[in-house]
Amino acid sequence: MLYREAGQFKTSYRSDQAIFPIVQDRWFMWGLIAFGFLVLPLFANQYLYTEVLIPVLILSLAAIGLNILTGYCGQLSLGTGGFMAVGAYASYNLLLRLPDTNLIVVFLFGGLMAMLVGVLFGIPSLRIKGFYLAVATLASQFFLEWVFARVKWFTNYAPSGSVAVANLDLFGFPIQTPQQKYLFVLAVVVVLGFAAKNLVRGRIGRMWMAMRDMDIAAEIIGIRPLHAKLSAFAVSSFYIGVAGALWAFLRLGSWEPLAFDINRSFQILFMVIIGGLGSILGSFLGAAFIVLIPIFLNQAPGLLGVPLSTAMISHLEFMIFGVMIVFFLIVEPHGFARLWAIAKEKLRLWPFPY
Amino acid sequence: MRAPAASDIAAGEVLLSLENVSLSFGGVRAIRDVSFDIKKGEVRAIIGPNGAGKTSMLNVINGFYQPQQGRITFKGRTRSTMRPYDAARGGIARTFQNVALFKGMSALDNIMAGRTLRMRRGLLWQLLRVGPALKEEIEHRERVEEIIDFLEIQAIRKVLVARLPYGLQKRVELGRALAMEPDLLLLDEPMAGMNLEEKEDMSRFIVDVNEHYGTTIALIEHDMGVVMDLSDRVVVLDHGVKIADATPDEVKRDQNVIDAYLGVAH
Ligand SMILES: Nc1ncnc2c1ncn2[C@@H]1O[C@H](COP(=O)(O)OP(=O)(O)OP(=O)(O)O)[C@@H](O)[C@H]1O
Ligand SMILES: [Mg+2]
Questions:
Q1: Could you give the strand order of the β-sheet that contains B28-39, starting from the edge strand earlier in sequence?
Q2: B126 and A209: CB-CB below 8 Å?
C-alpha cells in the first residue's frame, strides 16, 4: 500500500510527461542522487570507490550508449570497446597536446571523436542488418584495436604502448583522490543519464524505436532510415566515447589498447542484455550486476568459510553470466528492468491480488 | 484536421492521378496499364478478387514499389521515383493489410510517432526536454489525445500494442495514420478479420474522418456492403487490369465485375 499512484491524478499532460510520473519514483530518484552525493562520501572507503562505485557508474554510461543503439534502435553492435578506445585516446591526445584544456572539454572531445567514428562505422547499417551488421561492427572493433596498437602517434610513441594521465583538475579543483574522481563521475553520469532518458522519451527516441520495431512502417510515417540509424550511432558512440575516456582517465589512470578489447565489448553487451534492452534503468542495473558478481564471488566463500580457488571463482563467474544471459534472452529480453517493473506492478496492487 | 492552405487543391478536384501504370515482379504482372484518379474529399474504393493487385496499387502510390511504366501526379506534381518517406512528407498516410505497428511501443507512443514529421525541435532541445521542446511535446500530445478520444481508445493508451487484440491494433494503426494529418489516407482492408460490431465502429471512424476532417481516402475492402455504404466511386481490378470505374451502384450491376467475382466467395 506504500507504493500507490491512487489519488495522484494527472491533471495535465505535462505531469504525465514527467520523467518519473509516479511521485514515489521521483522521490526515490532524488533521494538516491542526494545519497550518492552527500551520504556515500561520509563513509565510503577507497576500495568501495575504485572497485565498485566508479566502475559501476562509468560502465553504466557505456551501457546506456550501447542500449541506445541496440536496445532502442535495434542495431546490434560488438564494437563498444573500440568506440570506448576512441574516446579514451582522443581525450588523451587532446590533453597531451593542449595540456591546459578544461577537463570537461577533454571528455566532450573524446565523446565527439567517438561519435564521428561511430557514424562512419554506422554507415553499413543502412545496407545490412542483424547478424551481418554485428560482424561489421566486430570488424570495426578489431580495426580500432589495431589502429591504437600500431599507429604510435596515438600513444605518443610510448615504447610500451601504455599511456598515463595524472594530476587532473577541474577549474583548479583537483580530481585525484578516489572520492574526487567518484564525485566527478557521478555528476557526469547523472547529467548524461537524465539527458538519455529525455531523449528516448521524445521524438528522437520514438524514431529509434520505430526503426527497431518495424522499419517499413517507420518509413511510411516519414522517418528516414538514414537519419534514424545514424543518429542512434552518433548518440550511442558519444556516450560510449565519454565512458571510454572516463574509464581510462579516472578508473585506470594508465592503460594500453588491451583495456578496450573485444572482451570489453562483450562485457557491455552482457550488461545491456541482463539489465534490459531498451531501458535506461536497466543499463544501470546490468552494470551493477556485472561489476558486483565477481566481487561477491570473491568475498562470499571466504566469509562463509568455504574457500574457493581463483580458478573456480572465475569458472563460477562465467557460468552465472552464461546462465543469466540465456535466461534473459529466452525468458525476459527486457532484463532486470522488466522484472523491476513487474515487481512494482505487484506492489501497487498489494495486498490485493487484483 | 489541418487548416486548409491557399495552395491546397479545392474539394472535388483531382488530388492524385495515375496514368497507364504498369508494375510487374519478374513474370508476374501485378498491375497492367491502369489509369484512374482520386478527387479531393472523396472516399475512393479499390476492390477486386484476391491477387487482383489492390495492395500493389497502394504500394505504388506511396512509393514502396516503383512502377515500370506510367505517370503518377499528386497535388499537381508529377513524379518519377519516390521513397515512402517522401510520400509521407507529401501528405500520404496509410495502414497495412497485416497490421504494421511498432510492437514494442505503447499505443500512445505509436500514435505519437505519427507526429514525427510535424515536430521540429532538434537533438539538443530533446536532451534537455525543457522550454520549447517540452512545449512541443505537450502540444502534440494534445493533438494525439484528440485522436485517442475520437477512436475511443483512451483505456489502452499506455498498453504495449503487442498485447492488444487485433481489432484494437487496427484502430491504433488508423490513429497513427491520422496523427500525420494526411491529405490522402490509404487504407488496406481496415476491417479484415473484424466482427460485425468492430466493422461498424471502423466504418463510423472512416466516415467521420472523411466528413469532419475532409481527408481524402482510398479504401481497399472485400466487404461489398461496406464498400457500397462508404465509397463515392469504385475502381475494380482483376488480374491487374482495371475492369470498371464507376459509382458503387453502377459497379454492382456491371457484368464484367459480376463475372470477375463469380466463383470467388466473399
Ligand atoms: N513483392 C512481390 N513480389 C512478387 N510478387 C508480388 C509481390 N507483391 C505482390 N505480388 C503479386 O502481385 C499480385 C497482386 O498482389 P496484391 O497483393 O497486390 O493483391 P491484392 O489485390 O492486394 O490481393 P488480396 O486481396 O489477397 O490482398 C499477386 O499475384 C501477388 O502474388
Ligand atoms: Mg492486398
A1: B28-39, B14-25, B69-74, B77-79
A2: no
Protein residue with least CA distance to atom 22, ligand 1 = B55
Q: Give the residue, by CA position, lying nearest to ligand 1 atom 28.
A: B51
The more confidently predicted of residues A10 and A86 is A86
What's the B110 CA to ligand 1 centre distance in angstroms? Answer: 27
Total of domains in chain A? 1
Q: What is the ipTM of this complex?
A: 0.89
CA of B188 to the centre of ligand 2 (A): 7
Taking each helix axis as running N to C, give the angle between helix A54-66 and helix A262-275, from 0 to 180 degrees, rounded to the nearest 10.
Answer: 80
**What is the per-residue pLDDT across A167-204, written as a single tens digit (0 to 9) for each?**
777 787 887 888 888 999 999 999 999 999 999 998 99
Q: How far is A112 from chain B (nearest CA, A)?
A: 14
Q: How far is CA A334 from the centre of its chain?
A: 16
A199·B109 Cβ contact <8 A: no
- Give the per-residue pLDDT at A303: 73
Is the distance from CB of A209 to CB of B104 less than 8 angstroms? Answer: yes
Contacts of residues B255-262 at CB distance under 8 Å and 24 or more positions apart, as own/partner, are B260/B48, B260/B49, B260/B236, B261/B49
Protein residue with least CA distance to atom 5, ligand 1: B25
pLDDT digits (tens, 9 = 90+) for B109-127: 999 999 988 888 888 888 8
* Residue to mutate, B21, B56, B62, B99, ligand 1, most ligand atoms under 8 Å from C-beta: B56
Q: What is the pLDDT of residues A212-232, one digit of tens each?
A: 999 899 999 999 999 999 999
Provide the number of CB pairs (under 8 Å) joining chain A to chain B.
103
Domain ranges of chain B: 11-91+182-266, 103-181
CB A6 within 8 Å of CB A350: no
| Chain B closest-CA separation from residue A220 CA (Å) | 5
Interchain pair B138, A206: CB under 8 A: no
Q: Which of A314, A326, A43 is nearest to A179 (CA)?
A: A43
Q: Which CATH number fits domain B11-91+182-266: 3.90.1140.10, 3.40.50.300, 3.30.1340.30, 3.30.70.141?
A: 3.40.50.300
A17 vs B115: CB contact, 8 Å cut-off?
no
Top-confidence residue, A328 or B159:
B159
Give the lowest-confidence range in A58-67, A332-341, B159-168. A332-341
Residue A237: its chain B contacts at CB < 8 A? none
The residues that bridge with B37 in the sheet, in sequence order, are B17
* Alpha-carbon gap, residue A114 to A240, rounded angstroms: 7
Query: How many Cβ atoms sit within 10 Å of the Cβ of residue A224?
Result: 19
